C-alpha cells in the first residue's frame, strides 16, 4: 500500500492540464452516476444537526461565540461497477475547526485490501467540487455572454470555483458578497493576484441584479440569496426599472446559479421564493443527485406553490429536478470536447437555471483514480504503509 502526503498530491493536481482533465472526467462521472453504474451507501454526517455538536463548539480561548458553528465531518464512499477500486472519503471542515482536513482511502474491488491512502487534507474534495461547478457552468450557464460572475462567500471553495471557471469562460470580472469584512478584503486581494477584477457588493441580491453566473459557497442554515428580492414569476425579472446599462429589466440575459454550500440536512442558501420563481418561470432545476438534493441539498425544503410543469419525475419533496448526469447523457452532443458546444442554455433559451451540488461520491472515485494514476506515472513513489498487499498507488 502507498501513503501519499499532501505535498505529493499537490504536485500532480496543481496544473491546468490536470484541472481541464478533471472537468471532463467529472462530467463523465455524473453520466455514470445517473446511468445507475455507481454504487454508494448512505452518506454519514457527524457534528451537524440533528446530531450533537463536536466538542470544538465549547466556548473557550480559541472559539468566537459570535461566529456561527458550522463544523461537520462527512463520510462518502462507493464504486463504479466494473472499475478496479472502491473509495472511502472522510472530509471535515467548518468553524470552529481550525482548517479543512480529510483523506481518501482507495481499496481494490478484487481483494478488498487498501491500495492507497491519499492524505489530501480535504484538498481533493475542494478540487472535485470546483470541477463540478465548472461542468454545470459549461452545461447550463450562458458562458459566451457572461459579463460578471457573482460569488456568495469568501472561503476556500469560493477561490477554487474561480480557479476552475477560468477554464470555461473568458469573463474575469467578479462581484463578491461576504459577511465578514476582513475575509472579504483577503478574498479580493487573493483573487486579484490571480488576474480577477473583484468588486465588493453590499447586499447578496446585488449579485442577482448584475451577474449572469452566480456561485454560492456558504455554510448557511438560513437562506441568503433571493431574500426579499422583488420579481415576477412570469419573467423572473426584478422590478427595479433599468439595469446599469439602461436596458429594461425584461431584457436581462439568461442567468445561472450554482449552489455549493447546502450539503447537509438543514442547510440552505437560496430563498424558497427564488426557487419557486425559477420553477414557475420555466427554468431548469438540476442537481448532481435527485435523492441527495431532497435530503441535504437546496431542494430538501418543499413549497405548495410548486407547479411541477416539466415532464421530470419529482423528488420526494415535490420538486421537478433533473440530474446533471442524465441531462448530459440525453444531450450527448454537449459531451463534445469542444467546450463551446457543451451548453444547453443556448438551445433551451431558459430564463434561469439552478444547479445544486450536494456532492456525490462518484466525484471522489473519479479524482482518486486520476490522482493515483498521476502519482504512479510520476517519480513520487509514496511511502510504504503499515497495511500490506494490494499493490501500488
UniProtKB/TrEMBL annotation:
SUPFAM superfamilies: NAD(P)-binding Rossmann-fold domains (SSF51735). InterPro entries: NAD(P)-bd_dom_sf (IPR036291), ODC_Mu_crystall (IPR003462), ODC_N (IPR023401). GO terms for cellular component: cytoplasm. Belongs to the ornithine cyclodeaminase/mu-crystallin family. This is Ornithine cyclodeaminase. The lineage of its organism: Eukaryota, Sar, Stramenopiles, Ochrophyta, Bacillariophyta.
Amino acid at each position: 500500500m502507498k501513503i501519499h502526503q499532501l505535498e505529493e498530491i499537490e504536485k500532480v493536481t496543481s496544473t491546468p492540464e490536470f484541472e481541464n482533465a478533471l472537468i471532463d472526467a467529472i462530467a463523465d462521472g455524473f453520466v455514470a452516476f445517473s446511468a445507475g453504474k455507481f454504487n454508494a451507501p448512505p452518506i454519514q454526517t457527524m457534528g451537524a444537526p440533528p446530531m450533537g455538536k463536536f466538542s470544538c463548539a465549547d466556548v473557550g480561548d480559541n472559539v468566537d461565540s459570535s461566529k456561527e458553528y458550522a463544523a461537520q465531518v462527512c463520510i462518502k464512499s462507493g464504486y463504479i461497477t466494473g472499475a478496479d477500486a472502491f473509495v472511502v472519503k472522510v472530509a471535515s471542515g467548518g468553524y470552529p475547526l481550525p482548517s479543512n482536513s480529510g483523506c481518501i482511502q482507495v481499496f481494490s474491488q478484487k481483494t478488498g485490501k487498501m491500495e492507497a491512502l491519499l492524505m489530501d487534507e480535504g484538498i481533493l474534495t475542494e478540487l472535485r467540487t470546483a470541477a463540478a461547478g465548472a461542468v454545470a457552468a459549461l452545461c447550463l450557464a450562458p458562458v459566451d455572454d457572461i459579463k460578471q460572475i457573482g460569488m456568495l462567500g469568501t472561503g476556500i471553495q469560493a477561490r477554487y470555483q474561480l480557479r476552475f471557471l477560468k477554464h470555461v469562460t473568458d469573463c474575469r470580472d467578479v462581484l463578491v458578497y461576504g459577511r465578514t469584512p476582513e475575509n472579504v478584503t483577503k478574498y479580493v486581494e487573493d483573487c486579484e493576484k490571480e488576474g480577477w477584477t473583484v468588486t465588493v457588493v453590499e447586499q447578496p441580491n446585488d449579485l442577482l441584479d448584475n451577474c449572469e453566473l452566480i456561485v454560492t459557497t456558504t455554510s448557511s442554515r438560513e437562506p441568503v440569496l433571493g431574500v426579499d428580492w422583488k420579481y415576477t414569476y412570469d419573467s423572473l425579472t426584478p422590478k427595479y426599472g433599468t439595469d446599469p446599462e439602461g436596458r429594461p429589466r425584461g431584457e436581462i440575459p439568461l442567468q445561472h446559479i450554482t449552489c455549493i454550500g447546502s450539503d447537509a440536512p438543514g442547510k440552505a442558501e437560496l430563498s424558497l421564493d427564488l426557487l419557486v420563481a425559477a420553477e414557475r418561470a420555466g427554468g431548469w432545476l438540476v442537481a448532481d443527485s435527485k435523492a441527495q438534493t431532497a435530503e441535504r441539498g437546496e431542494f430538501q425544503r418543499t413549497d405548495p406553490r410548486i407547479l411541477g410543469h416539466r415532464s421530470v419525475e419529482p423528488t420526494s419533496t415535490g420538486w421537478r429536478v433533473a440530474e446533471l448526469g442524465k441531462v448530459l447523457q440525453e444531450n450527448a452532443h454537449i459531451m463534445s470536447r469542444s467546450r463551446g458546444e457543451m451548453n444547453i442554455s443556448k438551445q433551451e433559451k431558459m430564463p434561469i437555471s439552478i444547479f445544486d451540488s450536494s456532492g456525490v461520491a462518484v466525484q471522489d472515485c473519479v479524482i482518486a483514480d486520476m490522482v493515483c494514476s498521476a502519482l504512479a506515472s510520476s517519480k513520487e513513489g509514496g511511502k510504504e504503509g503499515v497495511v500490506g498487499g494490494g499493490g501500488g498507488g
